[in-house]
Predict the structure.
Amino acid sequence: MIVHDLATAFDTVITAATAWVEALAGASAFILCVAAFVAFGARPTTPYIVRRAMPRPSWARSPLRARALARRTRTLPLWAHTQPHDYDEAA
């Protein structure tokens, strides 16, 4: 009976030690993941921040810039006349 109680106590101590090691390993893994998440520049993912962080062409940054770009790069189609016509005179 004494040997059985001794074996049970030994098994309980080993199980408790193993449980503590697993708990400490889990806690340290969690802390390591949080530290890595913070260290490598993880950003919040709200739609506004994601929209601002996306690389966009210069014309998409503001309506004013889009209008200026449209004025700078506007080309007339081939069928458009460069000189206005006075159709009353032709009639």
